[in-house]
Automatic annotation (TrEMBL):
CDD domains: DPS. GO terms for molecular function: ferric iron binding; oxidoreductase activity, acting on metal ions. It comes from Pelagivirga sediminicola. This is DNA starvation/stationary phase protection protein Dps. Belongs to the Dps family.
Amino acid sequence: MTEKFTDYLSDNAREASINHLNISLATGIQLQLALKQAHWNIKGPSFIGIHELLDEVRARMDEHVDVIAERIVILGGTADGTLEGVEKNGKLEGYPRDAVHQDTHIEALKSRMVQFVSLVHEGLKEVGDAGDEETADLYTAVSRGVSKDAWFIGAHHTQAKK
């Protein structure tokens, strides 16, 4: 570990948090890329609204990923946002390259966002049990934000029922 700025945490708590945060970082980067892929390629009756929404969601996801990476460094770790780190630690399936219709993108994004939130909740429990309440708070904020954005995106599905 490099220099740490959290003397109040045990080495075990710090290591548990760094490990889970790096998985969240890699998975968050995968989600960032999926959002951009959809933004560039989406077509359908709600194109412009969704196209613009995806830029807003991507900007918020950028903030979440940045906070996660900064927390890793604060804890004395190295934030691994390299291509190799994302391939090794990311938990999302590859994004469908041939997706075009808005419903296909909406479903692909929504499911990945929900999966990311589930991963964040696992981390929240793990780091909380290890005694790192600040990282647990970070995960709570990320979960709240990504869940809300999943709802915003999911609401655009043209097959929504009454």
